[in-house]
Amino acid sequence: MRAILYLTRKEIKNGVIDLLHHPAKLVLYLFLAVILGISLIDGSQKEVRAPGSYLDVGILHGVYFAILLFITVPSVLSGLKSGATFFRMSDVNFLFVSPISPKKILAYGLVKQMASTLLMMVFLLFYAGMAINLFGVTVWQVLALVGGIALTVFTVQMITLLVYSYSNGRPERAEWIRTVLYAETGMIVAFVMSNFWFHGANQQALYAALASPYLEFAPVVGWIKGLAFAVINADAARTALFAAINALTVAGSILLFANSNADYYEDVLQSTETTFELKQSVKNGKTSGVRVKETKLRKVTDTGIWHGWGASVFFFKHIREMKRRNRIPFLRTSSFVLVGINVLLALVLQKLGSSGGDGMPASMMMVIALSTSCYLQFFFNVAGDWTLELMKPYIYLVPEKPFAKLFWATLTTLLTPVVDGVLVFAVLGVMLRTGPAIAVICMFIYISMGCIYTAGNVLSQRMFGQLVNKGLLMFAYMIILLILLLPAAGLSLAVYLLVKDLPPVFLGIPVIISNILVSVGVFAACRNVLSSAEMNS
Amino acid sequence: MLEVLDLTKKYRNTLANDHLNFRVEPGEIAVLIGPNGAGKSTAIKCIAGLLRFNGNIAVCGHPNKTLEAKRSFGYIPEIPAPIETLTVYEHLEFIARAYKVENWKDKARDLLERMELDDKRKKLGKELSKGMQQKLSICCALLPEPRVILMDEPLIGLDPHAIKELKTILIELREKGCAILVSTHMLDSVREFWDKALIMMNGQIAAVRTRAEIESTGEDLEQLFFEITEGTQTGGAVL
To answer: Per the database record, which ranges form the ABC transporter domain (chain B) (predicted)?
Structure first.
């Protein structure tokens, strides 16, 4: 135990010293801390408005529950395949082979994981101001919500380990766990939808369904949500009940894991090695930290790229890879998910609108769908073919002009939103009967946003290269995107002020023009970005 | 022919390569040898145009980052990184098309046979073992028939057959007039075929010897290597 305490003490001390030796990093952390402090102080001093001026708390319940499910389900599913780990390669190499009890090492790993989870959750507090403004909650209540998410991340990691250890090499157990997980998720969705439908199918019914106390008895996610909202509502009895249930869950998982399988090293080794390789490749500048998703590939029946000569082969290589992932290039699972989400959104908006009298105008519904789609596109775009191409050396080595390589290597990433945009807004245009002009403008705005995301990515690579700190890189990327979108916002505002009686939908045209011009400008400015793997020098 | 003049590479406060100067002539195999951290991989990556640097590097008379230079060299990285979703055959087709290699199919078949990958043509990059990935990486580098070949620890992870075959290929390429630069920290692995040894230490070339010099003076390359790397002589000075 002395060795572990020594290790922990030294790691903390050296971490602080390292931070002092990197003043830029220190300044950035201090800057983030000040911004966070200001937003929290500002939030705590906000005057309480009339109850009707806030959004219904049911929305907060729904969004919170969705976040918890979003953290839990993919993590447990991945646990069925490869396990999870909070150990590093150095722990494997030094601690696992040392004469220290595996249980003590497990405790050390858990404590470290808790610390890093808490640190990660600090970033969620940036949403505090938004939650306070929208729902009228206090700073302390926001802290309870963030605490619930931290607890979820921690509990889920523990459960994931347990699930892997229980199901590893036993497909029937993995299948059983998968069924339970899908059943719970399905029951939650069915409960909300049926409550919404059978209680009037209006806004109030939806909010009431989302905030239903029965949902809080759904295992793990429900219990954690129950705890967070019991704290918010100052309900001592429920707080005690859910705190006890959650404590039992965590303690039970740890005990089960430690007792049932004392030799857990093998269980965590594979995922520790995978994580280590990912970090190493980031350090060597080979990836942007995007974990390549293990997509199921279609069986290899034919082999060949067939087209392309020089730089254009990058495009045809991407097409070949797309065909290997999906039957039809550009039509990915995410395309259908996007259509599905938008259709569902349109149905809910139609239903909500009609319950209120005149109904929501179709153009307004399209704007909401467009905003949602652009937001989702941001995440779909992060692991595009272009980002993945930067992980391999070929893009830098091939004897072609850097701009030609940049163009051909980003082409599929630029074209994918074209297919998605046409698909989504054609379906919505027909469904909501908006008329072709609105649908086409929405399509082009969506496509132009795809250009901006890709241009922003190229620019962030040019400015910052492959920063080791993924969080900082993402922060920088977001700031760059905001700056690139400013001309579009300014131009649109100018048109709104200058042209009288212009139908609102036409305000999208300046956005399209600006986004495309800005993207072309970024590509031209970064035309030599691929002349070296050190793109930011 | 490869010519390196005053190559200096600095990572923040670390001087990885400090004013390196050397040439590799056509029909010559030069080995960059040195302990871990000596700066061998950094030098190879600079020559391959992957890193920015100060100084001048010419490949067949062209600055190394020009298209003419890139057409003339092949690079085998230390860590192979195949494309997960392409088959072995498609890797070679991709390289052939990217480098505009005419009549590449026979050359590809020959390389795959020599590296015992011909029965893996339809295997995806992600399905290959580390050794097979390295073999594929070698095939990709050699397909455009480069006149300068850069190899960063090429023998690591290969099975005995592939090591033997790669050594034979290197000797054949030398006979065809290729200039070959191999970085390694294992002297034994290059003992049979090196023509010029560049011993690196602390980012500098501490000694240069040709095989003819060693044979004529009776000097022991291994002993010289350890004298330099274990600090019994002044590191940095060209001996």
So the answer is: 2-227
Pick from B53, B15, B12: nearest CA to A25: B12
Query: Has residue A215 got a pLDDT over 70?
Result: yes
Rounded to an integer, the average pLDDT of A305-312 is 91
Contact A314, A389 (CB under 8 A): yes
The alpha-carbon gap from A487 to the nearest alpha carbon of chain B, in Å, equals: 34
A322 vs A133: which has the higher pLDDT: A322
Region for residue B12 given its phi and psi (left: phi exceeds 0; alpha: psi -120 to 50; beta: otherwise): left
Residues A278-305: tens digit of each pLDDT: 666 555 544 444 444 456 677 777 888 8
Contact A311 B99 (CB under 8 A): no
Interhelix angle A236-260/A221-232, nearest 10 degrees: 150
A393 at B interface, C-beta within 8 A: yes
Mean per-residue pLDDT over chain A, rounded: 81
Rounded (5°) CA angle A197-A377-A196: 5
Quote the CA–CA distance of B219 and A220 in Å, as a whole number. Answer: 72
Higher pLDDT, A383 or B148: B148
Q: Residues A484-490: contacts with CB within 8 Å, 24+ apart? A: A484/A452, A484/A455, A484/A456, A484/A459, A484/A515, A484/A518, A484/A519, A484/A522, A485/A452, A485/A515, A487/A514, A487/A517, A487/A518, A488/A514, A488/A515, A488/A518
Lateral strand order in the sheet of B204-210: B73-76, B148-152, B179-184, B28-33, B196-201, B204-210
Q: Model's pTM, two decimal places?
A: 0.70
- Whether the Cβ atoms of residue B4 and residue B181 lie closer than 8 Å to each other: no
Backbone angles phi, psi at A230, to 5 degrees: -65, -40
pLDDT tens digits for A6-37? Answer: 777 877 888 888 778 777 777 877 887 887 78
Looking at residue A289, its pLDDT comes to: 42
Residues of B in contact with A314 (CB under 8 A): 98
B190 contacts B183 by C-beta, under 8 angstroms: no
Within 8 A by CB and 6+ apart from B132, the residues are B117, B120, B123
Distance between CA atoms of residues A64 and A62, nearest Å: 5
Chain A residues whose beta carbon lies within 8 Å of the beta carbon of residue B93: 304-305
CA A514 vs CA A5, A448, A510, A520: distances in Å: 57, 9, 6, 10
ipTM for the predicted complex? 0.74
- Contact (CB<8Å) B68/A399: yes
Distance CA A264, CA A342 (A): 44
Report yes or no: A39 and A129 within 8 Å, Cβ to Cβ: yes
CATH class in words for B2-229: alpha beta
Does B93 contact A305 at a Cβ distance shorter than 8 Å? yes
pLDDT at res. A281: 59
* pLDDT of B78 higher than 80: yes
A103-106 LR contacts (CB < 8 Å, sep 24+): A103/A258, A103/A262, A104/A1, A104/A4, A105/A4, A106/A254, A106/A257, A106/A258, A106/A264
Residues of A in contact with B83 (CB under 8 A): 317, 321, 392
Query: Residue written as tokens 């759904």?
Result: A218
- How much is the CA Rg of chain B, to the nearest whole Å? 18
**Does residue A56 sit in helix, strand or coil?**
coil
Delimit the domains of chain B by residue range. 2-229
Residue B193 confidence (pLDDT) above 80: yes
Do residue A400 and residue B67 have CB atoms under 8 angstroms apart? yes
